Amino acid sequence: MRFFSDNAAPVHPKIMQAIVDANQVDTAYDGDRLSMQLDARFGELFGCDVAVLWVATGTAANCLALTSLCQPHQGIVCHREAHIEVDECGAPGFYTGGAKLMLVEGEGAKVSPATVTALLGTIRDDVHQVQAAALSITNATEYGLIYTPDEVEALSALCRQHGLGLHMDGARFANAVASLNCHPADLTVRAGIDVLSFGFAKNGGMGAEALVYFNPAHADAARYRRKRAGHLQSKGRFLAAQLLAMLEDGLWLDNARAANAAAQIIAEAAPQRLMHRVQANEIFIRLTAAEAASLRSQGYDFYDWGEGATRLVTSWHHRIEDVKPLAAAIAAL
Amino acid sequence: MRFFSDNAAPVHPKIMQAIVDANQVDTAYDGDRLSMQLDARFGELFGCDVAVLWVATGTAANCLALTSLCQPHQGIVCHREAHIEVDECGAPGFYTGGAKLMLVEGEGAKVSPATVTALLGTIRDDVHQVQAAALSITNATEYGLIYTPDEVEALSALCRQHGLGLHMDGARFANAVASLNCHPADLTVRAGIDVLSFGFAKNGGMGAEALVYFNPAHADAARYRRKRAGHLQSKGRFLAAQLLAMLEDGLWLDNARAANAAAQIIAEAAPQRLMHRVQANEIFIRLTAAEAASLRSQGYDFYDWGEGATRLVTSWHHRIEDVKPLAAAIAAL
Amino acid sequence: MRFFSDNAAPVHPKIMQAIVDANQVDTAYDGDRLSMQLDARFGELFGCDVAVLWVATGTAANCLALTSLCQPHQGIVCHREAHIEVDECGAPGFYTGGAKLMLVEGEGAKVSPATVTALLGTIRDDVHQVQAAALSITNATEYGLIYTPDEVEALSALCRQHGLGLHMDGARFANAVASLNCHPADLTVRAGIDVLSFGFAKNGGMGAEALVYFNPAHADAARYRRKRAGHLQSKGRFLAAQLLAMLEDGLWLDNARAANAAAQIIAEAAPQRLMHRVQANEIFIRLTAAEAASLRSQGYDFYDWGEGATRLVTSWHHRIEDVKPLAAAIAAL
Amino acid sequence: MRFFSDNAAPVHPKIMQAIVDANQVDTAYDGDRLSMQLDARFGELFGCDVAVLWVATGTAANCLALTSLCQPHQGIVCHREAHIEVDECGAPGFYTGGAKLMLVEGEGAKVSPATVTALLGTIRDDVHQVQAAALSITNATEYGLIYTPDEVEALSALCRQHGLGLHMDGARFANAVASLNCHPADLTVRAGIDVLSFGFAKNGGMGAEALVYFNPAHADAARYRRKRAGHLQSKGRFLAAQLLAMLEDGLWLDNARAANAAAQIIAEAAPQRLMHRVQANEIFIRLTAAEAASLRSQGYDFYDWGEGATRLVTSWHHRIEDVKPLAAAIAAL
Question: By CB atoms within 10 Å of each CB, which of A8, C80, C280, D182 scores lowest?
Answer without folding.
Answer: C80
